[in-house]
Amino acid sequence: DAGVIQSPRHEVTEMGQEVTLRCKPISGHNSLFWYRQTMMRGLELLIYFNNNVPIDDSGMPEDRFSAKMPNASFSTLKIQPSEPRDSAVYFCASSFGVRQGEHFGDGTRLSIL
Amino acid sequence: EDKVVQSPLSLVVHEGDTVTLNCSYEVTNFRSLLWYKQEKKAPTFLFMLTSSGIEKKSGRLSSILDKKELSSILNITATQTGDSAIYLCAALAQGGSEKLVFGKGTKLTVNP
């Protein structure tokens, strides 16, 4: 079975550029989560969707971050403009409820120079 | 504010040792506690604990929840180098919210 698929795997870009991270959740899952992981702050929930609707975006750092889920099989997380402090690994995860825990993608390692 | 605290932050042991990882939580309307193992990439699910005092076991790993103490432990017996990873604990609140609040993790290194 295909797991959660994220792209790109790695991205290095200069500050000020727009960055778009993509996620395809596991088919049939109705909840999708975007996380950010850094050494200093650990794993932080940015936003999550249920049935394609954003439920809680209180973890989104600021207006430079936005997320969309236009359909059940695709979501994007966009940073515009990007800053060096946005450098982190961004994970997307999906679940059908949380009976067995969320299934994580392999993450996008983002470096902003 | 909901929070999950794990200890220790880092642990180095020799193969064959037994380790205990700790997790404490303060979560409104707590429902369940989950443990994950993160090696090089994404966290992978280990256990979900909902009832206090009932041990869950998978091979050399076991975990138990104490709702009175608002805590959980993860035990690993006869550790192997393959157990080296970051172990994450997360708390789930009930009431329709699906989100997990994660601790910062315990980095376990098992040396041969």
Can you walk me through this structure?
The complex is a heterodimer of chains A (113) and B (112). Chain A has no helices and eleven strands. In chain A, strands 2, 4, 5, 6, 9, 10 and 11 form a seven-stranded mixed β-sheet that branches. In chain A, strands 1-3-8-7 form a four-stranded antiparallel β-sheet, with no helix packed on it. Chain A has 113 residues and is an all-beta fold. In chain A, a hairpin with a 2-residue loop joins strand 7 (65-71) and strand 8. The radius of gyration of chain A is 13 Å and the shape is globular. In chain B, 0% of the residues lie in helices and 60% in strands. Chain B is built from no helices and eleven strands. The radius of gyration of chain B is 14 Å and the shape is globular. The model of chain B has no long low-confidence stretch (mean pLDDT 92). Chains A and B meet through strand 4, strand 5 and strand 10 of A and strand 4, strand 5 and strand 10 of B.
Strand content of chain B: over 45%
> How many beta-strand segments of chain A?
11
SSE succession of chain A = EEEEEEEEEEE
Shape of chain B: globular
Averaging pLDDT over every residue of chain B, what do you get?
92
Radius of gyration of chain A: 13 Å
Strand content of chain A: over 45%
- The oligomeric state is heterodimer
Question: Biggest sheet of chain B, in brief?
Answer: 6 strands, mixed
* Average pLDDT for all residues of chain A: 92
**Approximate helicity band of chain A:** under 10%
Please provide the count of β strands of chain B. 11
* Residue runs with pLDDT of under 50 for 5 or more positions of chain B: none
Judged by helices, strands and strand pairing, the structural class of chain A is mainly beta
Largest sheet of chain A: 7 strands, mixed
Unreliable segments of 5+ consecutive residues of chain A: none
Structural class of chain B: mainly beta
Q: How are helices and strands ordered from N to C of chain B?
A: EEEEEEEEEEE
Total DSSP helices of chain A: 0
